[in-house]
Amino acid sequence: MAAGLAATVWNALAGPLPEGAAPLPYVKPDAPTVPAFMPASPEVTGAIPRLNRPDDARQLKAGLDALSGRDAARAIALRNAMPTGSLDRHILTWAIAVSGQKDVPSAEIAAAQRELAGWPGAATLRANSEKALYREDPPAQQVLAAFGGSKPETAEGTVVLAKALAASGKVVDSQRLIRQLWVSEGMDKDMEDRVLAAFPAYLTAADHKARMDYLMYRSRISQAKRFGELGKAQSLYNAWAAVLQRSANAGALLGKVDAGWRDDPAFLFARVENLRNRQKYPEAAALLRQAP
Question: Number of H helices and number of E strands within the chain?
């Protein structure tokens, strides 16, 4: 009813349009004017981080340049002078920790792991931390505290933890670590030498034979040679090496392998490979079916 009354009043006021005239649209109120530039205010921009000052950028660049020049001590000093919690400080801390340089202490890397949780390169940080501990060779209790209940992830970490366990009277646990390392880790010859020097009584002939197998399955023939001798499997090593090198006398050397190794899976593998090298694929397949 109210709507109808309003329409009647409006029509009475408006009156009829002249003949031929078209109704015009009503003018809307002007839209509020928006300034082209909104002045900054703490309520609006307070949460937006400011860009680095030129001095900050120069300090970060100097720290990264120091790392490139293998001057980790200078990089750490520059990082320590940066504002705590700043992005530049985090970036340089991360770069120092993942650099793998020998002058970076294990404590520095451990602090970076805590400070930069969620940043990329966690595996690298862990590996670098273990290698730094190995270089520093701290007291046994410090090493045990650093690892907690976690397992080492590098050869260096395994060695330093095994030494700490032995020093704490846990010789069986220490030996277990080293024997597992020996048969499952692709160490270079230098690291192998260090393990042999640190734990001369831990490894048996069977361990050395297992080391030989590990290396030979990966075609690291020259590195495996001494473990053929230490593992008392020289005849097997000679034949296997000849097969891998496709030597003409491979078959003859396979025939000379000691009887004690004739049932060894490595001997079967070498025979299969020799047949494949000679393109005797049906014979190789038949022999392979004998594998345990």
Answer: 17, 0
* Domain spans in the chain, listed from the N-terminal domain onward: 55-128, 137-203
pLDDT 10s digits, 218-238: 999 999 999 999 999 999 999
Closest CA to 108 of 139, 68, 140, 135: 135
Backbone angles phi, psi at 142, to 5 degrees: -70, -40
CA angle, 233 then 239 then 242, to 5°: 135
CB of 282 closer than 8 Å to CB of 257: no
Contact 244, 218 (CB under 8 A): no
- In this structure, what token pair is assigned to residue 102? 């020998």
Tokens encoding 291: 């594998």
- Residue bearing the bigger pLDDT, 77 or 6: 77
d(CA 213, CA 215): 5
Return all residues near 20 (Cβ < 8 A) that are at least 6 apart. none
Dist CA 61 CA 55 (whole Å):
10
Q: In the 8-state DSSP scheme, what is residue 153? A: -
Q: Where residue 291 falls among pLDDT bands split at 50, 70, 90?
A: confident
Q: Which residue has the tokens 């005239």?
A: 21
Instruction: Write down the pTM of the prediction.
Output: 0.75
**Cα 237 → chain centroid:** 34
- How far apart are the C-alpha atoms of 99 and 128, rounded to whole Å? 8
> Cα–Cα distance between 259 and 256 in angstroms, integer?
9
Q: Please, what is the Cα angle at 288 between 287 and 289, to 5 degrees?
A: 90
Question: Which amino acid is located at 181 in the chain?
Answer: L
**Pure H helices in 41-154:** 42-45, 54-68, 72-80, 87-98, 106-115, 122-136, 140-147
Cβ atoms of 179 and 209 closer than 8 Å = no
